[in-house]
Amino acid sequence: RRLRAHHREPHQVLLAVITSFEAPISLVSQAVRGLRRVVDQRHKPETSYVISVEMFHAGALKALPGLLDMSRFNGAIIANTIPEDDAFLGAAFIPYPAVLIGREISGYSSVREAPGVGKQAADILMAAGCSKIAVLHPGVLTQSTSGRRNEFMAAVAACMGAHPEGIVSDDLSESAGFEAMRRFLAGRQDIDGVFTTTDTLAVGAYHAIKQAGLKIPDDIAVIGVGDSDAARYMDPPLSSIGMSQVRLSEEATRLLLDHLDGKTSKPVSVLVP
Predict the structure, then answer these.
(1) pLDDT value at 2 more than 70
(2) Backbone φ/ψ region at 227: left (φ over 0), alpha (ψ -120 to 50), beta
(3) Residues with Cβ within 8 Å of residue 184, at least 6 apart in sequence
(4) Global pTM value
(5) DSSP codes, 140-177
(6) How is residue 44 annotated by DSSP?
């Protein structure tokens, strides 16, 4: 339309961060921050980038308006999908560049953390002397949280001869982490270390542990994943491993812009160490 009107305005490119309502808002904020940072670095006078956040209920990605046509955006980063959404993406055709964060699906470019995060968490807790270990994870697992949990459980079982206790939360939110840990401790479960598959769950776990009159890390050591902004301000500061959502989003944005600029035409899978 601008070409027909002979306007000299910059070409406008609409970029979307597509994520679920169930994802903690801190993860969404980090993803947008990473996208914005790379877009600013790739600034072109002839191009104007507009960023939007598009949200769906977990398991209902297919209901998002405009997802399968080009009526709403020119490129997208998709995160925080569950298996039902992944199955839909695997069977669908999206007519614009899309990069997935934290999952690998045939036909799509993706950016994921390198394997080994769960094993590293287990090694750290066991090296600290923990012998009664648990893992706090959501009931509905994404590819990322499933991989972290499975790696952790396998590493603990290989070293101690038994799988760690499982503590299941309703979702990835801080409040869900608190409720799950509170229920677990109320059952007088005796643990001295816990791995949470996200930092947001660790925030809730901290509160429940302290409410139970226990000390961190003297009574229960806690380790999370994600290098969240809140980790350093927790009391005591949270030990956190893995990759921040900002870094993953930055890598995904670089890949998305390469697709939009024609530098990359085939699906690319990037593992961030």
Answers:
(1) no
(2) left
(3) 134, 165, 167
(4) 0.85
(5) S--HHHHHHHHHHHHHHHHHHSSPPEEEEESSSSHHHH
(6) B
